[in-house]
Design goal:
single chain, Immunoglobulin-like, four-stranded antiparallel β-sheet, 18 strands, 50% strand, elongated
Amino acid sequence: MGSNSDQGKHLTIATAAVVSVFFVLVISVATIGGGLERHERSAIRIADIDIAAEALGIAEASLNVTTYLDNGGAAQSGDINIVVKAYDADTNLLVTTNHTEVGKIGGKATKSASTYVKVPKAGGYKLQIVVFEDDKGIQRAETTIYGLTSLEPPSVAKIAIREIDFSVEAVEVEVERERAREYAIINTTLYIDNLGRDVSGLSAFIKARDNETRLIADKVWKDLGMLKEGTTSLHYAELKVLNGRDYIIEVQIWQSKRIIKESSGMVLLSPFANKTVVLKTKEKTVEISPSFKISDFIGPSGRYEEGGYKAPVPAPMPAAPPAPGFEALSTASVFLIASLLLLKIKRRRRRG
């Protein structure tokens, strides 16, 4: 009896051992097979991540997220894209996102790519970096940043507007509401000196303002591009304005939503202008009206005729009335003299 019981125990233990070994082999094969499958899908991994921050102004910052990717395989990878998402650290809400196309990475090679995202300086952010290969997500990393409010705004670029040149290159005639109007194309050339370090991100806002009405006739934005240290660069812009008028050309240089430099110049297109002449050896400014109609700017008015404005003819001035009091004084004097004469005659008759 004891012998049979011992044999049964040994058989049970042997069976359990065989089953355990079988499951271990199955799990091992599955694991190895899965590992081979993942290896065949992608050999790309995130090696490192660098984050740099720069203040764009008082309330906004730019994050430069540089991702380093390693290709551990011998074969060239597929098309790699990197997506960077910025989440609010307190609410986990998505604030902004951007992506960068990396392209293919050669076997046993490392490649870096930078992705820029703009975020408000207030608060903290959780950055999520996702790597895609042939539109399939293969790697993911996260990091959190704080303290962007301590970033100082960029310093004002040290530039100067040395000169502004103007030239009229063409005159165009356009028919509007059965009326022909002439427009002049003013070519504006800016000479800008960079007195500081290399700078970019500057824009010029150029406006043509009518000298008489003070209205803006035309305006244009111009990107100044990269300004090298210690150089003078030329920048061109065209303005289309009504011909026969005088204009003030105003130039504003903008950096980070701020005006850092201003300048202006005059363009005289009217056939006549206010001129200084000499009359009887005395200098006097005489205003000569140009040959244009105010209807070029506003609707027609009854005060203005086809040939231009005609000044009204003044009415003749009436004769001044005589000064009061002198006529009455003369009449009283005559009456007084006559009374004295009559009184004298009466006295003589009484004596006689």
